[in-house]
Amino acid sequence: MCNNCMPLDPYDANYLKQNKIKHQSFHSYLRKITKNSKNSIPGALLVEPFYGIKKDCQSGHKPWPLGICTKCQPSTVTLQPQEFRMVDHVEFSNSSMIDTFLNYWRLSGHQRFGFLYGQYKPYDSVPLGIKAVVEAIYEPPQENEANGISLNLPWNDENTVDEVAHFFGLKKIGMIFTDLTDDGSGKGTVICKRHMNSFFLSSLEITFAAKMQLKHKNICKWSKTGEFSSKFVTCVVSANKDGNIDIFAYQVSNSAMAMVDANIIEPSIDPNIMLIRKEEFDVYIPEVFFQKINKYGIQVQENAKSAFPVEYLIITLTHGFPMNPDPIFPPAFNTFLIENRASIGQIQNIYPLAEKIKPIIEHPDGDILKTLCDFHLLTYLWTLGILNKDDGSLFIKCIRENNATDIYTLLDTPSWQTLITILHESNLL
């Protein structure tokens, strides 16, 4: 075999450039460092940046903050664009979920936040790529503010929602929020606020994204700690350059995660600038440098001193919708009210729940079960706390497998009978 007919490496620089792939996929990067490393033992290849004080230093000085030495103090931070990304593409299993999410803004004029539930799958458009497939958006409790929204995380029912998602093989894979302002033209267009001359992700949003990525670490056997980076994604619904509503997908770099974890940086009023915290008695701040191209076209290293551009911390992803949608939760059956929308008069309660359950009791067949395949309906039912874990698991199994046989077993369970009794006493059945 000659050089002309040998298959290209997935990290081949010319291939990535020709196909305009800015960041190589994580597994391409892993393949690259595995090939170039003499050590292919799992746990020895990947090392995450750490900018905190090393504990249990054996140099004989007092523990931080009373003492420090060159062995336990963090080294200088040099920021440069990350060459790989943990996720390459975000795929929404159907467009209806985005439309439903946007309806809150359309009805109220206020911004909205949601968590993305889904799973990770191979992505063929990028060598050894990974895509985050979103199956549902859950909107946690949130308060409208003049300049955005405020969240109180974790919320009370978070574990319950995660449990329902787990029954379908799903987990929390990201977050999504709107930044929309109608342009007043009456054409349905919005003001483009995020562009190359302003910002794409603000310093506040980057800090929040880093905290969420730290909370949802990626399990990896090639890392000494068993974890490396994160596959948690951040999606912003805002205006594109034409004034149309669009989705923009991002992650923040490993350096961003490490700097937030070490409490080195904080957001500024200018969304395009990240501040470096001032050193305090118990907070050690290492020097931070970043590389840039000067006016002569030469790459130079500059001391960030008190601040630096956020572009060094952002990783861009692509997004889209499948050509042949096959969502776990079909849009035709997702008619139950969305959670935590009391501010626009949409309140989840047992009345629409009774309307959904009544046909099961009268005609327990597969077609009826399909209509219950609604993530918002199921999470509401779980938060009521009426069905125990075993009966709830059986209920979801019936729905997931479209199995009408097991529904008769479910109808005889004590917790299901309790639910039916409550609905009867409320004159809803």
TrEMBL record:
<dbReference type="GO" id="GO:0015031">
    <property type="term" value="P:protein transport"/>
</dbReference>
<dbReference type="Pfam" id="PF05021">
    <property type="entry name" value="NPL4"/>
</dbReference>
<dbReference type="GO" id="GO:0048471">
    <property type="term" value="C:perinuclear region of cytoplasm"/>
</dbReference>
<dbReference type="GO" id="GO:0006511">
    <property type="term" value="P:ubiquitin-dependent protein catabolic process"/>
</dbReference>
<keyword id="KW-0653">Protein transport</keyword>
<protein>
    <recommendedName>
        <fullName>Nuclear protein localization protein 4</fullName>
    </recommendedName>
</protein>
<keyword id="KW-0509">mRNA transport</keyword>
<dbReference type="InterPro" id="IPR016563">
    <property type="entry name" value="Npl4"/>
</dbReference>
<keyword id="KW-0813">Transport</keyword>
<dbReference type="InterPro" id="IPR007716">
    <property type="entry name" value="NPL4_Zn-bd_put"/>
</dbReference>
<dbReference type="GO" id="GO:0051028">
    <property type="term" value="P:mRNA transport"/>
</dbReference>
<dbReference type="InterPro" id="IPR007717">
    <property type="entry name" value="NPL4_C"/>
</dbReference>
<comment type="similarity">
    <text>Belongs to the NPL4 family.</text>
</comment>
<dbReference type="Pfam" id="PF05020">
    <property type="entry name" value="zf-NPL4"/>
</dbReference>
<dbReference type="GO" id="GO:0031965">
    <property type="term" value="C:nuclear membrane"/>
</dbReference>
<keyword id="KW-0811">Translocation</keyword>
<dbReference type="InterPro" id="IPR037518">
    <property type="entry name" value="MPN"/>
</dbReference>
<feature type="domain" description="MPN">
    <location>
        <begin position="90"/>
        <end position="228"/>
    </location>
</feature>
<dbReference type="GO" id="GO:0043130">
    <property type="term" value="F:ubiquitin binding"/>
</dbReference>
<dbReference type="GO" id="GO:0031625">
    <property type="term" value="F:ubiquitin protein ligase binding"/>
</dbReference>
